Please model this.
Amino acid sequence: AARRERAAVRPGGPGGAALVTAALDDWQASWDLPQVIGRRVVQARLLGPAGDVLATRELPVVLDDSPPDGVAFRDPPKLAKRGQPLALRATAADPESGISELSFFLGGLTDGKPPANAVFVPGVRSAADPTTWAVSLPLPPAARGPTAVSVRAANGAGLTAYATTSVDLVD
Model:
């Protein structure tokens, strides 16, 4: 992108002095980096006219273009008492940017998307196994019979993947 520079001189300073205003807008840059993935640091340096470094800034970034892998429930129960919280565990992996969250909800996917009224309940990462997340999912008292339950895994880049299972809610 092109650099935009502005300068203005106007009267009106103390004692009739000229006021000088200068601005240099931020540069915008984009890079095509298909082979660079994972957590990285972007460094910007401001150079003076002689090439000396006037300032340096670093920004951590995550480069990942793939959703989480292996999203699955771990030993989900086949039956559960309706109206009682449902204990679930699930797992997911993402070697490029890591897993940032697993959230559980009632219902399945339609065209790859959760129901519009889905209530996401965040899971808790296991201290013993950081690839496993657990939740106590509230169940509505009126729900009965086979019920779809899903989990959404999000990676460090915000990409998501899902898994769905069915639990039969009984009295």
Notes: Residues 39 and 62 are 5 Å apart (CA to CA). The chain has no helices and 13 strands.
